[in-house]
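Researcher: Structure prediction, please.
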Amino acid sequence: MTKVVGIKFKNGGKLYYFAPKKGDEYARNMPVVVETSRGLEYAWVAYPEKEVEDDEVVQPLKPVIRIATQKDTEFYEACQAKRPQAMQTCKEKILAHNLEMKLVDCEYAFDGSKIIFYFTSANRVDFRELVKDLASTFHNRIELRQVGTRDETKYLGGIAPCGRICCCAGNMPEFKKVSVKMAKNQGLSLNPGKISGLCGRLMCCLSYENDYYVEAGKKMPKIGAEVGTPEGKAIVAAVNMLRMEVKVKMDDRNGGWIYKDYPVEYVRFKKSNQPEKEEIEDDEE
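Model: Predicted structure follows.
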């Protein structure tokens, strides 16, 4: 077992494990300064000190340098206050250089060594002259990083079709892989406008209940299949995997149909043992 502290760098961001500093006591949401591959960074405690299995930790474990001081917090807040002006300046420079890129976010390194700008673009962008221009303007080292459309929504946030904050921006530390097959499993319309999020990609929440629908689907007949019911043979018209009910239609012998609902255990049908085909996931660019 290894003692760790759960650290997050942004709200809803990915959780990272760090080695606790001997003698320090941590509390949830306490600001700390940690060492990362990018240098010192300001972060927050997501989970106080605890023990985890050794295979859950990527060695070597980076340390928590210290609990953030008042000076650390003031410097971090000063960097955050400079972000809007830095964003505006960068947007003006992008227009001046006539580059096809959309600025998404910017970030000041905690040690003051550089400014990182995040952008999206449909194509590769030659931004070397832009970097030189920004460096001479800010008198600092500049990095430009291209991100995907899902990352853009995670940075900017927004209200999803369900009326809540987008999962990626609010409560999902890592992007989950989703596929059209998940929408099919849940009986959803395959209209892109119905199953796509603000980023234009498949909604992350499609994966939340997929395991249930996969297991429930194994116990249900296919729509259009012929099944046996307590009143004779019928055709499956629809299935309700939440109530585990099957809607069937039967010939009324007058040229019409009679529709009835049955619990799935009252319906006899041949279950398929063939493995289902895999579909391409909606991976990030």
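Model: Residues 212 and 241 are 9 Å apart (CA to CA).
Researcher: Thanks, that helps.
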